């Protein structure tokens, strides 16, 4: 549900960043940094972004890689940073005592007196939130942690390498400062937020960002259209991307229901880019052309981004980066197909090297990709 129009002059601005703000989007991981600014935003290269750090936890998955490291944790962020990624993506919510914490789900579950109980994260105080899961202090045992799957099952949140829950401030202080943060502003799809509440939550997050970010590259993103507009009005230092599933689910707020609506929101609000479900891009490849013509950047998320062939195809189509769970696997293949060739290397490449650097397509995958060729030719013309 849309909020009433908010004029820039009506919203308190938190854009006081110490030092040279132009450095805020630069990192030693980028050769040229990120070209910021509302009128001309350009990502320096094809980005690989670690989803919730080293990947989300899918507890019901038979793939052990989806249960290796606790998602959205300091351990997960630092593990991802050991590979050639540019950013880690994570979800930020604000506790009832105004502390930004990193956690994906709206509700946190534990077992009490033999029964599962759940509490909304934003209704907990910081000490209550940090009581769940492993504790940093030796000898202290935290509350057990469970998770509800999309089909309603409740599973014990067990991973191979567990870690404590953490705050946004801790992430800034304990993660390599050259690793960029894609901060998703996590809000509940089923709550209609009042303008004052959104401004309060966003200001709390921005205070931590401005105090601790220093020169770390930052991108804000959110599925909530009003939050996207407001975070852009509250600050102009960091780029803001609008998250969309591109119409795979329908919402009462039409701004969430298609790539074209996402483009309109970005242009009306001065946002710098779109993060789309990768399936929406493959179903509607012409959307890439419209996004590019609108001078917006495009990133994608989704399970297909763990498939090297799908990532390679997006690179060819003009997508500028992918959010992935299989960080090591995807960073390796991306390095292979975007690394600059040395002078004369094209002629001297052996057949063996050519085979290893080009993804292999199955017949089914090739058939699917061939259907996109007319659209791709139109885009390249």
State the main characteristics:
17% strand; glycerol metabolism; single chain; TIM Barrel; disordered C terminus; GP_PDE_dom; two-stranded antiparallel sheet; 381 residues; 32% helix; ten-stranded mixed β-sheet; EC 3.1.4.46; alpha/beta
Structure description:
It is an enzyme of class 3 (hydrolase). Its EC number is 3.1.4.46. It comes from Tetracentron sinense (Spur-leaf). By secondary structure, the protein is α/β, with parallel strands linked by helices. It has one domain: Alpha-Beta Barrel (TIM Barrel), CATH 3.20.20.190. 32% of the residues lie in helices and 17% in strands. The protein has helices spanning 74-80, 126-130, 168-174, 195-212, 225-234, 259-269, 278-283, 286-293, 308-317, 327-338, 345-348, 351-357, 363-370, 373-380, and strands spanning 47-51, 87-94, 100-102, 107-112, 115-120, 146-148, 154-156, 166-167, 180-185, 218-222, 240-244, 273-277, 297-301, 321-324. The strands form three sheets. Strands 1, 2, 3, 8, 9, 10, 11, 12, 13 and 14 form a ten-stranded mixed β-sheet that branches. α3 (168-174) runs parallel beside α4 and α4 (195-212) crosses α5 (225-234). The chain is globular and about 55 Å long. The protein starts with 46 loop residues before the first strand and ends with a helix.
């Amino acid at each position: 549900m849309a909020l009433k129009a908010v004029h820039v002059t009506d919203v308190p601005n938190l854009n006081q960043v110490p030092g040279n703000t132009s450095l805020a989007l630069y990192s030693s991981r980028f050769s040229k940094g990120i070209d910021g600014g509302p009128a001309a935003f350009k990502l320096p290269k094809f980005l690989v972004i670690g989803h919730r750090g080293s990947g989300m936890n899918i507890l019901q998955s038979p793939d052990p890689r989806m249960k290796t490291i606790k998602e959205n944790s300091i351990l997960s962020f630092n593990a991802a940073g050991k590979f050639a990624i540019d950013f880690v993506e994570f979800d930020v919510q604000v506790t009832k005592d105004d502390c930004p914490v990193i956690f994906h789900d709206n509700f946190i579950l534990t077992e009490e007196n033999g029964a599962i109980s759940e509490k909304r994260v934003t209704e907990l105080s910081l000490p209550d939130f940090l009581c769940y899961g492993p504790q940093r202090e030796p000898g202290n045992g935290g509350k057990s942690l469970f998770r509800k799957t999309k089909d309603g099952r409740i599973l014990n949140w067990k991973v191979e390498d567990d870690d404590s829950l953490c705050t946004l401030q801790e992430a800034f202080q304990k993660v390599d400062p050259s690793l960029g943060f894609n901060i998703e502003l996590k809000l509940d799809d089923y709550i209609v937020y009042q303008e004052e509440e959104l401004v309060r939550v966003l200001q709390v997050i921005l205070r931590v960002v401005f105090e601790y970010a220093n020169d770390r590259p930052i991108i804000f993103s959110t599925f909530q259209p009003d939050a996207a507009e407001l975070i852009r009005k509250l600050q102009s230092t960091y780029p803001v991307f609008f998250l969309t599933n591109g119409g795979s689910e329908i919402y009462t707020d039409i701004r969430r229901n298609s790539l074209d609506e996402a483009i309109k929101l970005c242009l009306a609000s001065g946002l710098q880019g779109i993060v789309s479900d990768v399936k929406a891009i493959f179903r509607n490849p012409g959307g890439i052309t419209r996004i590019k013509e609108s001078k917006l950047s495009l990133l994608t998320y989704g399970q297909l981004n763990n498939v090297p062939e799908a990532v390679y195809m997006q690179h060819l189509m003009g997508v500028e980066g992918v959010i992935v769970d299989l960080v090591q696997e995807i960073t390796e293949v991306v390095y292979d197909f975007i690394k600059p060739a040395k002078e004369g290397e094209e002629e001297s490449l052996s057949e063996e090297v050519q085979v290893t650097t080009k993804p292999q397509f199955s017949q089914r995958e090739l058939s699917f990709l061939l259907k996109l060729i007319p659209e791709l030719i139109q885009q390249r013309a």
